[in-house]
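We both want to read discrete structure tokens more fluently, so let's practise on a single case. Would you supply a protein for us yourself, any chain you care to pick? Would you write everything just below, so we can both look at the same thing?
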Amino acid sequence: MRYDFGSDNTAGMAPAALAAIVAANDGFARAYGADDVTARAADQIRGRLDADAEIRFVFSGTAANAIALSMLAFPHEAVLAHHAAHICTDETGAPGFFGQGVGLIGLPGFSGKIEPAALNAALAEPEVGHRQPAAALSLTQSTEYGTIYSEEELRHLIEPVKLKGYGVHMDGARLANAAAAGFDLTLIPRLGVDVLVFGGAKAGANCAEALVIFDKSLARRIDNRLKQAGQTASKARFLAAPFLGLLESGAWEDGAAHANLMAQRLAAGIATRSPFTLAHPVEANAVFVRMPEAAHARLNALGWACYRFDDGSVRFVCSWATRVEAVDEILEAIAGLG
């Protein structure tokens, strides 16, 4: 089975990230994040965002998201999110676990983007003692369906939430792909996001993600919180080093730009050479295809791993490592399914 398009998690580490780990392995360094590699990586992220923020590196996006949400909502409260968001569909209740009971309220919207009318309706719900009231909003950029929120779209979602005094979290697991597509990262703090997960794993790092806390009042005793959650690395430089390598070299953006370009090539080929149709706009590194179950099964039988998403479409994901030849090979296989 080939996993070229199964997920951007199936690719290895980008050369710049791997080289940075090797470099960080030379000699001795202070432990628990007090080292120079961690400091430099954090400064690289602050520079990309043009913001002074508290930054910590953790072992997974699930932990980063869940810990971030635990900062924004009490256990008796809930977080508003798109119903297909990773926190709602793929994190096994982690927000509730780390938040000691924090709930999730799923909202509708086309192609992974929250519908503003649905958000406003949720915000207008009366507070009663029998259900968890909303306390925060979670946004995903780029979305689970490979689309990218514009500045205006984000503003229309964030402003009413802020007017209610609620917090805002952004899951940026594929933030590099949004940036490579033209999204201005400096908008994130300016629009009012309180906590951001700055993606590393899908951009070519190992399994590390960065927790970026713009509202520093939320960072009180953050190191105690992370230690209790099992997210404090003794040799923290090995979590930070891949970020440092990717960001200092520009490979964070360059790899994402390549992934986006491969997704465009794949989408164009499917649209012109196959009997299938695209299910969502292709704006980042993911392509969703309306494909009958029998055709999907035949593609899997031919050795291509790709998965059916919750809307019924089949998802293909490109990465920094996707080769043009692989795109053309899978296009030939897909064309032969008709």
About this structure: The mean pLDDT is 97. Residues 33 and 39 are 8 Å apart (CA to CA). Residues 15-249 form a domain with the Aspartate Aminotransferase; domain 2 fold (CATH 3.40.640.10).
